[in-house]
Every structure is written in C-alpha cells, then in structure tokens.
Design a protein that fits this description.
The chain is α+β, with helices and mostly antiparallel strands. The chain is 34% helix and 19% strand. The protein has 15 helices and 15 strands. The strands form two sheets. Strands 7, 8, 9, 10, 11, 12, 13, 14 and 15 form a nine-stranded mixed beta sheet that branches. Strands 1, 2, 3, 4, 5 and 6 form a six-stranded mixed beta sheet that branches. A hairpin with a 7-residue loop joins strand 5 and strand 6. Helix 11 crosses helix 13 and helix 12 runs antiparallel to helix 14. The longest helix is centred in the middle third of the chain and has 21 residues. The radius of gyration is 22 Å and the shape is globular. It starts with a helix and ends with a helix.
Length: 445
C-alpha cells in the first residue's frame, strides 16, 4: 500500500475498508477488511468466476472463461478511488480495485479492464475521450412485495406525486430532506455531481455530472447509484435505477455526452481550426450509427431495458442523428466549437457504467478509424423510425455475437462470456409466468 493511502486512513481514523470490484451486471462485489489487514500488504483475492454472476446470482458454465480449477484473481486497489463512506455508522473507507492475473496482466472479464482496454486504443492514437453522463432514476415508496406495482413516494407535504412534474422546483423541494443529505453524501464521497432536475415521470429525478475522464466518470456513476440507494433507505423510501420501473411512466436513461481531445494539447478533435466540425466528428457519428445497433447488450442489458426503448416514451427507437433533436438516438447539442460533442441517448440507467462507456466509445472509435460517414442529419421528428435497435434481450445477444469489430474492441473472451451471462438471465426470465398471462389466457384460450 502506498504511503498516501496509509496517511488517508490514519487522518480519517478509518476502522474498516470496503474493497470493491464490479461484476458484469454492475453489482459491487468484494470484501470488508479491518484497516490493519488491508494495510498488511497482501492484496485481496477473489475467484474470477464472481465476475460471471447473473443479476439473480447464477453463473453459466465458466470453464471456458476461468478454467477448470476456478482460480483466484488478484484485486489491486486504485489509490485514486479511495474515499470515505459517508453513510456508514463507523469510520469506513471504500476503494475500487482492478482485477489482475497473478502475472500482473489484466483480467479480461472485468468491466474496468474492458474500459481500460478501449481507452488504451484511444491513447495509441494520441486521443483522450471526454464524457459527461446524465442519470435518471425514480424515488418510489417502500415495496417489499415484487408482485405489487411500484408507486411514487410521499413527500414532506404528505402527498403522493401522481401527475408529471417536468422541471418542477416545488416537486423536487418536496423531497428536500432526501436531497440535502444526498448532496452532503456526494460531496464527502467526492462524486462531483452538478445539476438536479425533476424529470417527466412521477418521482423521477435526474442528476448530471461534470465532464471528465471516462474511467473516473464510470467510477463515480458506479458509486453514485449506491449513494442514492443508501440515502433513500435512510429516508424510508426506495430509489431504483431500473430502466422502466412503472408501467405508465417513462423510462430512465443514462445519456452519455462524449467528445475526443488530443491528449497532448487538449484540443477538441471534433472541431477544425476555423471552428467548423471536423471529419473526425462526422466519422464518430458514423461509427455510432453503424455500431450502436449491435451493441445494445451494453446499453440495454436486462429484459426490463427494452420496455423503455418504445415509441413516444421520450426514449430512442433509432440511431438516426440530428442537431438538438431529442427524437434521435444520437443528438448533437448546441455548443461552442471547443465544446462540440455527441450525445448517445440509447443507454438506460440500468447499465454497468464501465461497459456502457466502453461500448459507446468503441462505436465512435471504429467510426473514426474506419472513416465511416454518417447519414444526413434528421431535421424533423424521428419518432416513426423504430427498426434500428433490437426489440428484446435475446435479439440483442444475437446481434452482439455477430459483430466482430466490437468484439475485437472489447475483447473476444469478454464478449463471449458476457453473452453467456445474458443468455442465462434471459432463460431464467423466460420461465416466469406473468400476471398478464394468468389474467388474459388462463380461462380464455
């Protein structure tokens, strides 16, 4: 352990350290260690197979991906991610770890390794991606029965929000105690959130992050989800990052704004010296148009994700692009030349942030390196275009398996394993008999 880490733990009087990795789903895995054991020098070990857990805790046949002996991997703390856990009852720290083999090489199955792999390809070209995620989520009333539909929570007014309150200040203020504590937690947890707004759905909120390094932002999104859920529990409500938690309300997205700068100078490569859009800007868009359709397994990773991607629900059903056009899956916001960027509106907020960042940046990278040209920008509504993206998880798996360029970007072994994890999830879901089937088929067919 570095001296800086030792000093941090001492200055904050830390008793325990949460040693965390993320699996393919985005769930935090790891161990909680006493401070002295953490500082003892021996890195945390976990079985590689823990990365292959489905969202419901099962695993596919992991022999092709980790070997017959189910070996360990070494989890190495990233000093830059060390921070205090503000909601813990005692003085607790958290640090995100990188997964490595015993020879020091990265574990290909680890989502953080996948994102590092993509960023390394940018670095080879002298480029550095800059991203800014926008995260939507719902506050809902406590619900311990999964068979009962979710409902908006009661605010400090004593009323339940039933109508839609887009950008309402008063609707946000109704949950002031929650947001004040969340703001304090985010500051202590060094998450760097910027803007809070009320989104369209009842109890739906949005948080924006300042733009920055893709790996750092993925770390912060990963930690932010946990901070929101922990804060909600302290206030007697739930927070959910499901893509479509309520039947009659719009889904929740994680839109990703992205640009690319020269690593050495910080110059935005999407803009020419005269302020006009560059060829690389259009190639990046062309890459998103070409490669987002086979990549939704990273942007819509669960069966519920495809309920969000439906027409007239403020969610894209296409990968057309346009200037300041929110009906398109790819939007170019109005901005100054130095801030020229592209917004990918396809990802849901239920993504693993490392994989969503890796996938969208891979699509753009392939466009830039293959010289792909985009279609003409869409000038009117694209709501009627809904044939670009897969309709369900099974379709997304098939498309992902069939895209060799994306597999090479993300890692062939990782893509094969990830598809197997998602196939097992889909098979498990397909065994469930829904209430709709009992209601409409039981006595009528």
């Amino acid at each position: 352990m570095s001296e800086a880490m030792r000093t941090f733990l001492q200055e904050h009087q830390i008793h325990e350290v949460e040693c965390v990795i993320t699996d393919m789903t985005g769930i935090a895995r790891g161990k909680i260690l006493p401070k002295d054991l953490f500082l003892g020098g021996d890195f945390m070990r976990l079985p590689k197979s823990v990365l292959l857990n489905t969202v419901n805790g099962e695993q596919p046949n992991n022999l092709p991906y980790v070997g017959a002996t189910d070996p360990d991997m070494v989890c190495v703390p990233d000093e830059a991610t060390l921070r205090v856990v503000p909601w813990a009852a005692e003085s607790v720290a958290l640090v995100i770890h990188d997964c490595r083999n015993f020879d020091g090489s990265p574990v290909e199955l680890a989502p953080r390794s996948v994102l590092r792999r993509v960023l390394a390809k940018y670095a080879e070209r002298g480029w550095k991606p800059v991203v800014a995620p926008e995260m939507e989520f719902y506050l809902v009333a406590r619900n311990v029965d999964p068979h009962v539909p979710l409902m908006p929570p009661m605010g400090r007014s004593g009323l339940t929000e039933l109508g839609r309150q887009s950008y309402s200040i008063d609707a946000v203020n109704d949950f002031d105690p929650f947001f004040l504590e969340l703001s304090a937690f985010c500051k202590t947890h060094e998450l760097g959130v910027e803007t809070l707004i009320h989104e369209a759905g009842a109890g739906q909120m949005e948080i924006n992050f300042a733009h920055g390094d893709a790996l750092e932002l993925a770390d912060r999104v990963f930690l932010f989800k946990r901070a929101v859920r922990e804060t909600a529990l302290r206030h007697g409500i739930f927070a959910t990052f499901m893509a479509k938690p309520m039947e009659t309300e719009p889904g929740s997205a994680m839109h990703v704004h992205q640009s690319v700068v020269e690593a050495a100078t910080g110059r935005n490569v999407f803009t020419n010296d005269d302020g006009s859009p560059s060829a690389l800007f259009f190639h990046f868009i062309g890459g998103l148009e070409r490669y987002v359709p086979p990549a939704p397994l990273m942007f819509a990773p669960h069966v519920n994700s495809y309920r969000r991607l439906s027409r007239f629900q403020s969610a894209p059903t296409n990968v057309r692009w346009g200037y300041d056009n929110r009906t398109c899956g790819i939007r170019v916001p109005n901005s100054s030349p130095q801030n020229r960027r592209v917004e990918n509106r396809v990802p849901g907020v239920d993504v693993n942030p490392y994989l969503a960042m890796a996938a969208t940046l891979s699509c753009g990278f392939l466009g830039m390196t293959e010289g792909l040209n985009p279609s003409e920008p869409t000038l009117d509504s694209a709501e009627h275009i809904h044939d670009d993206l897969p309709r369900n998880l099974e379709d997304a798996i098939l498309r992902m398996r069939g895209c060799a360029p994306l597999s090479r970007m993300l890692g062939d072994l990782f893509v094969q394993a990830y598809c197997e994890v998602k196939e097992l999830e889909f098979a498990t879901f397909s065994r469930v008999i829904s209430s709709w089937e009992r209601e409409h088929l039981m006595l009528l067919v």
